[in-house]
Amino acid sequence: KMWDIRQKVGMVFQNPDNQIVAAIVEEDVAFGPENIGVPGPEIPQRVADSLAAVGMTEYAKHAPHLLSGGQKQRVAIAGILALQPECIVLDEPTAMLDPQGRKEIVGTVRKLNEEKKMTIVYITHYMVEALAADRVVVMEKGHIRFMGTPREVFSRVDELEALGLEAPLAAKVASELRKSGVKLPQDIITDEELAQALCQ
Predict the structure, then answer these.
(1) How many Å apart are CA 191 and CA 84, to the nearest integer?
(2) Is 157 found in the same domain as 75?
(3) 187 lies in which domain range?
(4) Other beta carbons less than 10 A from residue 140's beta carbon
(5) Model-level pTM?
(6) 14-41 pLDDT, tens digit each
């Protein structure tokens, strides 16, 4: 059962340095397919397609250790893509990155989901990243506490904070204003929605 799942699911971890094994980017992306027995002539195309999908084609001949954190993480994602999984699980993939690196990874993941129709399971403590999801699952110690659309989940500010999670700033401010007597919609979760509601 576990073996079957591993054939269909690719994992990307927090630290790309733990996932990159080769001295050249294209060799690293080829490592996985070579290990699972993909025929040799098929591998270069898989590598090229995977690097293109994450916007790293021009770095194919580069040494990974010379890349930025965000670029390394995109190489790690390309290495998983080359295995052609049905689903990719990303475990805190931006935790070690600066804001620019975070932006690169969120954009890459969204593109894979929208253009390649890949199922993405994205584990994060950054609520602003979770806002981009179709469905959010809030967990505590391995148990599901609640789930729903980002709008349904992130309007539950007090419950999120009780679990030690930060609600998006707009949702938090809207919640505090409502407690102070300001009449605002219950489901405000973005800065734009908050500004619009306050200006009316």
Answers:
(1) 37
(2) no
(3) 134-200
(4) 11
(5) 0.87
(6) 999 999 999 999 999 999 999 989 999 9
